[in-house]
């Protein structure tokens, strides 16, 4: 196959990994099947946004010249593909989401824009509570956010930021990447998918640095994904250890590691930020 030799883009890599893990782990098969449908939409949408931004960046209004693109109000034309996205959810989503998507699709463009704008303006405060609307807005706008983030020349001051340096949302997961004999930890944004370095023994929820209060838990099923919990603020985050599985796609492997969420929640920990599938 000639496609084999072509470099896959980041969405294609996630889709391929989701198909692989879905075939391997029955407990994650359903969620990953749905994720694949969403990611296919996101890949197309991302390409389309990229072409549109390219055209507009030749003018003075380009995102690349904007130091704070996430502070700009959302433009109404961003709703263009929202109906298509809702149809994807109607076809492939779990029952409660299907019904909500169907209802929303018939709600009209004004309602669609309102919903997306509330999420866009919400930042860390989480203007939408977890649930279908948060899912719709987050999943739909994610390629848009990723696209303007990757084009922006926003300065990043470094340090150990608790929120995404670009869009100011909470991290959705952690990643350990090989560095010398150990691993360098970074956090991945739950919205625009930016990745930034973060000190290894620090709770991203409250800043706790006491090793004894930061328990780590791994499960038999996916040994390269771990729960990093905090006994001070009782939050947890999952971290994908690339030093143990170089083939992992962090976002997808985090989604697949459902048993870890069940374990953490049973212990009374609350996830710092639920993932795209609301887990
Ligand atoms: Zn972000
Ligand atoms: Zn904490």
Note the main attributes of this structure:
disordered N terminus; globular; 42% helix; alpha/beta; 7-stranded mixed sheet; binds zinc ion; 279 residues
What does this structure look like?
The chain is of the alpha/beta class. The protein has helices spanning 10-24, 26-56, 82-92, 95-105, 109-122, 132-151, 250-256, 258-266; strands at residues 171-179, 182-189, 195-197, 216-218, 225-229, 235-241, 270-271. Strands 1, 2, 3, 4, 5, 6 and 7 form a seven-stranded mixed β-sheet that branches. Strand 1 (171-179) and strand 2 (182-189) form a beta hairpin. Helix 1 (10-24) packs antiparallel against helix 2. The longest helix has 31 residues, at 26-56. The two termini are 36 Å apart. The model is unreliable at 1-5 (pLDDT under 50). The chain binds zinc ion (2 copies). One zinc ion (ZN) binds at residues 164, 166-167, 169, 189, 191-192, 194.
Offer a quick outline of the entry.
By secondary structure, the chain is of the alpha/beta class.
Number of helices: 8
Hey, roughly how much beta strand do the residues contain? 5-15%
The biggest sheet amounts to:
7 strands, mixed
Bound molecules: zinc ion
Low-confidence stretches: 1-5
Taken in chain order, the helices and strands follow as HHHHHHEEEEEEHHE
Q: What structural category do the secondary elements indicate?
A: alpha/beta
Q: How helical, in percent, are the residues?
A: 40-55%
Distance between the termini: 36 Å
Question: Could you report the average pLDDT, rounded to the nearest whole number?
Answer: 90
Instruction: Give the strand tally.
Output: 7
* Molecular shape: globular
- The radius of gyration computed from the alpha-carbon positions, rounded to a whole number of angstroms, is 19 Å
């Amino acid at each position: 196959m000639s496609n084999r030799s072509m470099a896959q883009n980041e969405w294609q890599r996630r889709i391929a990994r989701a198909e692989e893990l879905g075939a391997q782990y029955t407990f994650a098969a359903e969620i990953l099947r749905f994720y694949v449908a969403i990611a296919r939409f996101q890949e197309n949408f991302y390409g389309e946004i990229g072409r549109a931004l390219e055209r507009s960046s030749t003018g003075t209004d380009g995102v690349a010249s904007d130091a704070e693109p996430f502070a700009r109000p959302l433009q109404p034309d961003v709703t263009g593909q929202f109906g298509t996205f809702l149809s994807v959810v109607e076809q492939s989503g779990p029952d409660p989401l299907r019904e909500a998507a169907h209802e929303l699709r018939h709600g009209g463009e004004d309602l669609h824009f309102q919903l997306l704008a509330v999420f866009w303006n919400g930042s860390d405060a989480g203007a939408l509570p977890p649930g279908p609307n948060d899912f719709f807005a987050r999943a739909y706008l994610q390629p848009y956010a990723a696209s303007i983030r990757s084009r922006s020349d926003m300065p990043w001051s470094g340090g150990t930021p608790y929120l995404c340096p670009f869009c100011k949302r909470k991290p959705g997961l952690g990643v350990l990447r090989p560095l010398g004999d150990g691993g360098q930890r970074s956090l991945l944004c739950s919205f625009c998918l930016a990745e930034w370095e973060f000190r290894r023994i620090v709770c991203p929820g409250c800043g706790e640095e006491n090793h004894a209060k930061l328990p780590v838990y791994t499960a038999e099923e996916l040994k390269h994904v771990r729960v990093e919990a905090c006994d001070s603020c009782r939050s947890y985050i999952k971290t994908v250890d690339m030093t143990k599985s170089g083939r992992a796609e962090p976002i997808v492997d985090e989604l697949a590691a459902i048993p870890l969420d069940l374990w953490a929640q049973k212990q009374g920990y609350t996830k710092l930020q639920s993932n795209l599938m609301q887990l």
